[in-house]
Design goal:
- This protein has one helix and four strands.
- It has one helix at about 60-65, and strands at about 20-30, 50-55, 65-70, 75-80.
- The model has no long low-confidence stretch (mean pLDDT about 80).
- The protein has one domain.
- The chain is mainly β.
Length: about 90
Amino acid sequence: MLSKCANPACSASFRYLHNGKLFRVERPAERAARSNLDFDDQRTVKKPASRIEFFWLCDECSAVMTLAFDDGAVKTVPRAKAHTAAS
């Protein structure tokens, strides 16, 4: 359950979906939790199990950073600056 901003340095509490930016991440389920069976009752291959997690950045943090997912860890990274067109 979401309770605060994903930025560890921020203490903003999650209250509303319309504030900040919500991230949906689909991760593979842990191998230990998976069944040894790869087939359902009709003997067709099942889709591998996955786990969906949500992360939230508050308005202030989402204006200057985003989230990156690396080796199963969630990290805050600075947002790329927009390039202006040359005239």
